[in-house]
Hints:
Blueprint lengths: L1 H26 L9 H4 L12
Protein name: Cytochrome oxidase maturation protein, cbb3-type
Pfam family, one: FixS
Organism: Chitinophaga rupis
Amino acid sequence: MSVIILLLGASLTVGLLFLAAFCWAVKSGQFEDDYSPAHRILFDEQADDHQL
């Protein structure tokens, strides 16, 4: 039974560490990319004159 309490405490600690890392990432601006590479494919760019 004491192993369950130990594992519960360890999982809560890891969960709180991940929550703290997520909050730090939000505050430092890691998720403020308005023009991400995933959306760049939707817009036309000037095509290169080099064709194979």
